[in-house]
Structures are given as structure tokens and as C-alpha cells.
Amino acid sequence: MKPRDRLRIAMQKSGRLTEPALDLLNRCGLSFRQSRDKLFCFGEGEPVDLLLVRDDDIPGLIAQGVCDLGIVGRNVLNEFKGGAGDGAATLTEWRPLGFGRCRLSIAVPQEMPYGEPKDLHGLRIATSYPGLLAAWLREQGVDATILTLAGSVEIAPKLGTADVICDLVQSGGTLVANQLRETAVLLQSEAVLAGPEALPTDERGDMIELLLKRLEGVIQVRE
Ligand code: PRP
Ligand code: ZN
Ligand code: MG
């Protein structure tokens, strides 16, 4: 990796975290040349640029050193950290950011009886978070089959490809629309600032410290 003198932050290109993340960075005094359809946004004042990518790619980009920091859901970060990918163990959550709150939950068909995690024994569970789900099932002592899907997890029970799902719930609207009900919460999530455990020793490290200080001020005012 070539040394860089500008800080690079990865964030979601288009999705629920995009607007609040940009808004938060603006409040921290960072502004970017408008090029929202592009992958790269050049920072105007401070030496901080943005990389707009798929949220699932953010932890990997940080682990590879392509980006210094990322704004990403704790769910995505922890799924990556639980995996065996290069540099996964060195990623850390620098700060929760107070937006994009949701939870990773088990949801079952409305008519299906459910009393406790053990009731999932022997079932097929569709999810985009196989690592987090596997860890939880292990903790609960439940033996179930995990079906990994990139998206549209909520229609799996109707299609008959899975019995229940493990997916993100925010308003609960998606579950209601698919006649599912939430039965167990695996993880409380929100957008977080993610980065390597060790700060870069050059100016980027100073910039990160400055950004963390500004975030502290901005987030405290809001809460
Ligand atoms: C998440 C999740 C659910 C939905 C839940 O998907 O996978 O589908 O949000 O939100 P709700 O409880 O407010 O209905 P998202 O829209 O983020 O997109 P994705 O599945 O394509 O990642
Ligand atoms: Zn995603
Ligand atoms: Mg979805």
C-alpha cells in the first residue's frame, strides 16, 4: 500500500446510512466536492476524502488499508470481525454514531409457535449474517442449518427455502409485510466509526484524533 497524506473514509454509497453519515461529517466541519454518483469524493477544506461503496465492502477496505476509517453498521463490522478474512481481528469500533439504530433478530412465520431459542433446533434459517448467527446458535446450544442469502431474506419462508429468518429490523415494517414476527434479538446495532486498532503514525493519525474530538462535540450536542 502506497503511503497517503490524505485521510480516506469509506461510507455507504446509497442506503439508510448515507444521508446521516454525510450530515454528521458536515457537522464535523468536513465538506466534499459534489460528485455523489462517483466512487470518490474529494474533501474541500481538510485533507479528508470519501470513498462511496457498498456497506458490506467497508470493513474489508479498511482491513486492506485502502481506507483509514469507515462509517458502517455494527452488524456489518461484527460479521466481518467474526470471519477469517485478512486483518479482520485488527478492526475496531472507534465510536457509536447515534444513527441507523436497528437490531439483528430472529423472525418466524406469524403462526409458528416459538417459546425459546431451542425451538429453532433442526430448522433452516435464512440470513445475510451467517457468522453472527452461527455464533449465537452456538451460544444457545442450538443446532440449525444456516442458509446464506445476500438479500431479500424475508421472503425465504414463503418460498419454502427456509423455515425462519435472521435479519435486521428497524421499524418492523418488513416483518409485518411478510407475516413474520420477531422472537429473539441477537445484536443491537447502529452506525459506528470503524478503523484499525492502531492509528497511522503520520498526519492521518492526527487527523483521526481531531475528527474523533469533533465527533464527540457534535454527537453530545445532539444526544
Ligand atoms: C433491511 C433489512 C430488512 C429491512 C428492515 O434491509 O434487511 O429488509 O431493512 O427494516 P424495517 O424493519 O424498517 O422494515 P435494507 O432496506 O437496509 O436493505 P438490504 O436488505 O438491501 O440491505
Ligand atoms: Zn448491505
Ligand atoms: Mg432488506
TrEMBL record:
Keyword Flavoprotein: no
GO BP term (any one): L-histidine biosynthetic process
Domain of life: Bacteria
Cofactor(s) recorded in Swiss-Prot or TrEMBL: Mg(2+)
Regulation of its activity: Feedback inhibited by histidine.
Record keywords: Amino-acid biosynthesis, ATP-binding, Cytoplasm, Glycosyltransferase, Histidine biosynthesis, Magnesium, Metal-binding, Nucleotide-binding, Transferase
Residues in ATP phosphoribosyltransferase catalytic domain copies: 54-216
A molecular function (GO) term: ATP binding
Locations listed in the record: Cytoplasm
GO-annotated cellular components: cytoplasm
Enzyme superclass (EC): transferase
Pathway: Amino-acid biosynthesis; L-histidine biosynthesis; L-histidine from 5-phospho-alpha-D-ribose 1-diphosphate: step 1/9
Catalytic activity: 1-(5-phospho-beta-D-ribosyl)-ATP + diphosphate = 5-phospho-alpha-D-ribose 1-diphosphate + ATP
EC id: 2.4.2.17
Record-stated family: Belongs to the ATP phosphoribosyltransferase family. Long subfamily.
Function: Catalyzes the condensation of ATP and 5-phosphoribose 1-diphosphate to form N'-(5'-phosphoribosyl)-ATP (PR-ATP). Has a crucial role in the pathway because the rate of histidine biosynthesis seems to be controlled primarily by regulation of HisG enzymatic activity.
Protein name: ATP phosphoribosyltransferase
Species of the source: Dyella choica
Positions spanned in the full protein: 1 to 223 of 297
